[in-house]
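Bug #77: duplicate submission created two jobs. Keeping one. Sequence:
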Amino acid sequence: MADEVRVEVVERVATITLNRPEVRNALNAPLLDALHAAVVDLEGDDGVDVLVLTGADPAFCAGVDLKALGSGGLGQRHVGDARNPLAGRTKPLIGAVNGPTVTGGLEIALNCDFLIASERARFADTHARVGIQPGWGLTVLLPQAIGVRRARQMSITGNYVDASTALAWGLVNQVVAHDQLLPACRALAADIVSNDQAALRRILATYAEGALTTASEAWDLEARVSRTWADSHDVAEVEARRAAIVERGRSQQGAPRGS
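Kept job's structure:
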């Protein structure tokens, strides 16, 4: 793996770290290519069920490297045939936001399935300040996360949103102490690993497919998927999993992790 990205796999969980800390993990062509390659490799690795994406301190990602942008090396760069470096995956991806997350970095974060933030995290969309346009889904994903009015506010002011505001707005699922960020994400990843992976990935796909349709079509889509799934799965296996769920609920004795 290229130096721009580090990958560590432990107990079926892969932690991907953007690794240009000297420039706050700013995006250039080698980093984008390495990130895309890491996601493709892990997608095909049967020993990995969940991905966690973070940045080398002090930032998650400061956006596009302005030197690379100025040289014409990026612009609205697509990586391979993908809309962004994280496109095309089926495995769950948790964003572990450890610090400032700006513009292209914010778009990468938004393409994660959900975000857990360090208390040091801050978020900004500075496309308009730089004088460029989003190309990795920001105008779709940011309104989905926080509502269109707040999304417009972030995009046309370029102002930063701190971790507590991001939590209140629904941009992140949880805020934790900085030194607990990766442990918290890996604990959630372990919960995900304990599920039926085929069912889990089909649910994620249904979310993604439904987001591209009308609400009525999304209801019909889910019904079709549910019928097809029921016709192809072993009832005894489902019943065994149901019994395990009951035991897990008793052991948790309270709110689920991450609530």
